[in-house]
Every structure is written in C-alpha cells, then in structure tokens.
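Entry:
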Amino acid sequence: MSATLHSIGDNADEQELTDGFHLVIDALKLNGVETIYGVPGIPITDFGRMAQAAGIRVISFRHEQNAGNAAAIAGYLTKKPGICLTVSAPGFLNGLTALANATTNCFPMILISGSSEREIVDLQQGDYEEMDQLAIAKPLCKAAFRVLHAADIGIAVARAIRAAVSGRPGGVYLDLPAKLFSQTMDAKAGEKSLVKVIDAAPAQIPAPSAVKRALDVLKSAKRPLIIFGKGAAYAQADDEIRALVEKSGIPFLQMSMAKGLLPDTHPQSAGAARSTVLKDSDVVMLVGARLNWLLSHGKGKTWGDAPKKFIQIDIEPKEMDSNVEIVAPLVGDIGSCVSALLEGIDSKWPAPPADWISTVNAKRDENIAKMAPRLMKNSSPMDFHGALGALRTVIKERPDAILVNEGANTLDLARGIIDMYQPRKRLDVGTWGVMGIGMGFAVAAAIETGKPVLAVEGDSAFGFSGMEVETICRYNLPVCIVIFNNNGIYRGTDVNPLGGDVATTVFVANARYDRMMEAFGGVGVNVTTPDELKRAVDTAMDSGKPTLINAVIDPAAGTESGRIGNLNPQSVVRKK
C-alpha cells in the first residue's frame, strides 16, 4: 500500500499515514480496476498522475462525454464496471450524459467526479464550479454516493462496484469532494478500511415453476420465434445460447448489439426475414431484449394480427408486462435461465412445424437475393449500399474485428447489411439511439480487447466525438475510422429557401476529414469507390495504424431520419 511517512513529535515513533488519493487508488486496484478513462483537471489532476504511477492505465480524452462512453462500453465488454474520472460541475455534467446512457443500456459504469466543498455548496456561497452534483446525478443513474471521510472510501468504492454490476447492470455516481483527497489517516487503519467485493453479481436462479411454464408455452407454438437483445450478449452465456437455438430448432432474430451471438449466416437466423417473423409468429421468447420502441412496444402493425404469446427472460421483474402481457415471465440471470430451459429440451422436443420453417427460409432467401445486386454496385460517388457491401466483405474476412457503428442511414443500413459472426463484436448507439458514442467506444474496444476496430461513422455522427482522433493517435490504437461523407445530416442537398445561410442540415461541401487524422500523425485516405474503400480498410487493418478514411458518398443518398422518420414530426400547415 503506497503511503507517506510523517514524524509525530520529536521522540515519537514515525507513524505511517495514507490519504484520500492513495485510498481511492488502492480500493480500485484491490477490486481489479486496470483502466480509468477521463479528462484531467481540478481537483483530480494529481489523482490521475498518481493512479498512473500506481500501475493503473489512465486514458485521457479531449471531452468527458467520450471518456464516459468509453467507460460504459468497457463495462459491457468485460462485465466489470468501467471507470470514468471527471472534474467538477461542467466536467461532471459532460460525463453524466454517458452515465445516463449507460444506465439506459444496462452497461456497468462508475462515474467518479471531484466536487466543490460541501459547506460552501450547501449554503450556495459561490465556490469554484459550485454544484450539488449528487442531487443532479441521482435521478439519472442506478445509485449515487458521496464520500466525506477518508475512512469511508473503501466501503464507498465497494458499494459502487456492487451496485453497478448486480441485478440489472447500470451506471453509478461517486462524488469525491476536493478536501477528501488530502485527508490523512493511519495507513494500517486505512488498509483495513478497504473492501474487496465478493460475488458482486451473484447468479439469480429462475423458479422451477416459471421454467416449466415457459417450456410449456414454447412447446405449444406453431410459429415460434426467439429474439436476442444485447443483454444476452452481455451475459457471455454464448455456448448455452447456441445450444438452446440449435436444440429447439426455432428461428431467431438478433437485435443489433446481439448480432454475432450466433452468426448472421446461421441457417436458423431470420434476420433477413424480420418483418415476416415479427408479423406472423405466435409465440415469441425474448432473451435479454426489451419490448421498447426498437420492437414497436410489442404491438401495432409491426406485429401483425396473429395472436401473440410472449415469454420473457430478464433479471429485472419490473420489466415484465411493461407494454404487453407476458404469459411466461422468467426472472433470473440469462445464463441460469437459458441453462434451466436447456434441461427441459431433450431429444423428444418437437421441432417447429415444417411449414413455418420453410416460410421463414423462403422469405429470408428472397430478401437476400434482392439485396445482393445493390451491394455489388461499384459507382462513384458511392451510395450507402455499395460502400457497405465493401465493408461487409471486410468483416466476413476479419470476423474477430470489432465494428463500431453510428449515424442515421449509415447505422440503419449497416445493421442489416453487415453480417456479424462472433458475439460482442458489434457496438452501436443502443437503446436511446444517441449519436456521439463512436470514438469513445472505439478507444475502449481497442484497449479492452486488443482487437482491431473498424468504426463506421456518418459524417454528422462523427462530429460529436471527432476530436478524439487525437486520442486514438496519441495512444497509437489499432482503429480504422470510415466516415460516410455525403456533405450533411441525412444528405447534403437541402436548400435554404430564403438564401443566405446554408440549409440547417448541410455541411461544408467536399470536406476532407482524412486530413484531420494526418494532422495528428495518423494515416488519412480519401476514397471514391467501393473497391478503393475495401483496399484502404484492408491496408489499415493489416497495419494496425490509426487511420481515417473519408468515403465520398453521393450527397443525394440518404433519407430523412433514416428508418425512424416516423418519429420525426412534420408540419402539415403551410404559411400563405
């Protein structure tokens, strides 16, 4: 345990002391924290230096929101809480966006922020960056704690870790006022105050009666379907999930971040027949997926007229019946629930009716065949399908690479076009559909996994976190960024009817994002055809060098709001 030595009195024995800085670092190290993502500044500048000197890897970003996104996706990839460190007030608020997004997506993350002095904040006397950060954080995360005494640091860190990963994972806020860091205490007492968290996320075993109910409903199905959400990918119960699918013979859909749990090319994958299976299925089993807006809340025309019975596996009991009746709720952790179901699926389990399987397969094959020519189009400038067709081949040839994806059309189309082959290799905007996750996710994916990263970005989405290309170059990370540049948000052809300023969705025409990367010592490439794009990405992935490829897309390509244009209200009133 690192500490300083102080002499108490002229002839007294030297008493070894420790302080808040060392206790926080020691508490994190004791619990296996190896990396901190953050932005240095008052009052946590020295903390970052000391953590680095103590052997923790400290990755400094250019903006706290991106550091927070990195910590969040680190939590998703490792099942251990990702740590984000920020300064007070504005820095805390920047990190809070990522913390709220982590909580919504069920990613385990801890936001640690320095804060101003309590006695001044509470009397609102105008301290430096004065803000009651704990009160602001509480509604937006799973738990929030403030530490006022050095002796409580060990317990606080332990509580934060347990809160982040137990049950349904989420974000936790830990408030550390500036005075805490310099508080001293006896080093031996400090060491005893630290807590190593035991069994932070214990298995939650489903009730046998619930398992039997779910199996009975599944067995009764004439047109069954399994839907996997990112919770199923997070669970790392990959072998059990594959066995469940293959022993049951049931077609499956994978939500975007669940893609690759089983290969999208698996014979039971119904990804290319999504509309058909949602509309025509009669029993649907949800595994780590929620019936939120991404699944049309389980009702409406998306789900057709066929009566539906839902089975739902989730660790959170309150998730059941959130939008529609769940006839067979199965509450527990996904690994335990899937294993329990497997015990009931033996050699006598009835295969799904042949007419259902043939209907699904026929629709899937028809849609794949319809899409194929569009993906082979080698035009200049490119459209989205031609460019994504090239990247589809890249991932097929490099299934171990991690794909980060955000944008409007860039995201919507990539979800359906780029097949994934391994779990937790596709990272995207998740439940909220937010833009700006790209560079933070890319940095953490490279650091936590050591795998090459391909970040496919819309030009608008890239703008939210683009300055982090300097961070990628500074740490020499194996990240290849491809920007689909069509000169604007959705597309680059809108016109301001009054003249003057450009339209609100239009960017600088023919911008060269690749030159940004060159400015920081990375590799920049400008491409105009799918063939050039494929060659440039292959070169980047082979080299492992930080690379940014500016992919020139037809400015007229792209649709308003991508595939969720129905969520974007349009005025029907026209001024005379």
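Residues 7-12 have pLDDT under 50 and may be disordered.
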